[in-house]
Amino acid sequence: MRVKRESEFVVLTFNVLEGRFFDQILDRIAATYRAKPGTLSGPTEEVLYSTKGCAAETTLEEAGEWAEHLRGFKSSRLTLIDDWSSQLKSGGALRVHLKVKTDDAPAFIGAVNDHRLIAAAEHEIGEDEMSLRDPSEMASLPDERQGALMEIHFLAWIMEEVLHALESS
Question: I need a surface site. Which of 99, 103, 108, 113 has the fewest CB within 10 A?
């Protein structure tokens, strides 16, 4: 993957496999954002619609309104996610390009980070596992957790490169 700033865009260039993988992740993000609060798994629900930001004396109704407000905020990214996914699907035989408007970069990073947090919560990956870099240390984890951890690292790399490209303007 390569990331560079071009005028009012951040352009991500993926090889075909990276592009397909990231497109699958975007599809999963979109599906999660389309789901209503109360219909997601416990860890996903907690990541996206936690009521920890509400006051201690919040009623159940107010907590529900809070979750719906958060859902509205998250689902406002769906048009962008659909556009990014369509760019990846229409890529070339060797490389695919994804152009993210710099104004949309916070939404892009937010959506990617949401998925990282969900993957960590769903697979009970904590800071200790997140800091693993040696493949032999990762090998001790169950296959599903290894896959989630690799996905988390891949998404972190994307976020870091996008942020770096934004800073270089």
Answer: 103
